[in-house]
Structure to design on (66 residues):
């Protein structure tokens, strides 16, 4: 079952404002939401991409910058 629009919006806001100070908490929130989704759900893939971006932030980088 796809994520509720309100939940997805809240997570998207948290991901877009994540920084080194709060990235661990944001990762936990995204992983918790992703755990309840089927692997073939498009939101599962979307949240996976967000986790990749958060990993870059956690490593001190900026997503999308090389």
């Amino acid at each position: 079952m796809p994520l509720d629009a309100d939940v997805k919006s809240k997570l998207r806001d948290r991901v877009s404002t994540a920084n080194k100070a709060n990235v661990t908490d944001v990762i936990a929130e995204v992983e918790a939401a992703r755990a309840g989704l089927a692997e073939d759900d498009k939101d599962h893939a979307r949240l996976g991409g967000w986790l990749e971006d958060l990993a870059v932030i956690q490593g001190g980088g900026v997503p999308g910058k090389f």
